[in-house]
Amino acid sequence: MKFQFKIIVSLLFLILVAQPLAAQKSGETIKILSYNIYHGENPVNAGEGNIEQIAALIREFQPDLVALQEVDSMTIRTARVYGSKVDLVQKLAELTGYLGYFAKAMDYAEGGYGEGILAKGNGLFETQNLPLPAGGEPRAAAWVTYTLPKGKEIAFAGTHLCHQFEENRIAQVAAVSQRAENQKLPTVWVGDLNFRPESNAYKSIKGPWKDAGALPTPYAPTYGSLENGARIDYVWFDSSKFTLLDYKVLNVPHSDHYPVLVTLQLK
Predict the structure, then answer these.
(1) For residue 62, which of 3, 12, 121 has the smallest C-alpha distance?
(2) What gap in Å lies between CA 154 and CA 205, rounded to an integer?
């Protein structure tokens, strides 16, 4: 009888322990891609487009959300590459079956230049204009509220920070991260931030934000050479809401940047 009682107690203990573990493992996963696409042109072969290759990459990895930087919309530059003016985000949306959104940061070459988001299946989109205390090129962040398959909503942003002045980068990081903190949803923000991890702009990021590419993740440059390039493209996530499952820098030659692919799990 005592032996049977011990078995029952042991089974109850295992059930009680297993339930929170199962709940922890049952959180939905989300796959995110961030990519500076060099305005839709192969950086090595001038005049050659890269959109077909980027679309193929997206179809291969099937991210839920894609943030695109250095995006042209209906510019003379796209006409030079593709034969007529092209909205690069909408072209990628057509080639992948995603929803596309272009967030114009500035007028450029008879069209626009800024950020793009591709969302698989749904999305409510907005543009955030970023501060320029030191002057320079206008910058923006593209935002989307995205619904996961089980109905959970998250917020996601992609941006491209100032390449000229650290004062601007610090102010722009503050603007994006503050808006992210104000979200009532689990939030991820990403992009080409034009700074390295040792910079003051990087160190200025406070709060719950975790850099998906920080150690102990193996260091991998995202710009220039994979051997001795710079890590300037990032995925930042709210560490109180997400767990990092996977981080990769993809070795593909379609741009002067490498795409960053991250898989997160909702806690």
Answers:
(1) 121
(2) 21
> Using CA atoms, how far apart are residues 142 and 101, in angstroms rounded to an integer?
8
pLDDT digit string, tens, across residues 47-79 = 999 999 999 999 999 999 999 999 999 999 999
- The token duo for 147 is 């619904």
**pLDDT tens digits along 160-196:** 999 999 999 999 999 999 999 999 999 999 999 999 9
Q: Could you give the residue ranges of the DSSP H alpha helices within 103-185?
A: 166-182
Sorted by where each begins, the domain ranges of the chain are 29-266
Burial label for 90, CB within 10 Å (0-12, 13-18, 19+), is middle
Angle in degrees, 0-180, between the axes of helices 51-61 and 88-96, rounded to the nearest 10 = 40
Q: What is the CA radius of gyration of the chain?
A: 21
Residue 83 one-letter amino acid: G
| DSSP assignment letter at 137 | S
Q: Which residues on adjacent β-strands are paired with residue 246?
A: 263
Give this prediction's pTM. 0.90
Per-position b or e across 185-215, b if 16+ CB within 10 A of its CB: ebbbbbbbbbbeeeeebbeebeeebbbbbee
CATH code at 29-266: 3.60.10.10
Q: Which of 99, 102, 67 is nearest to 86 (CA)?
A: 102
Give dist(CA 174, CA 206) in Å, integer: 9
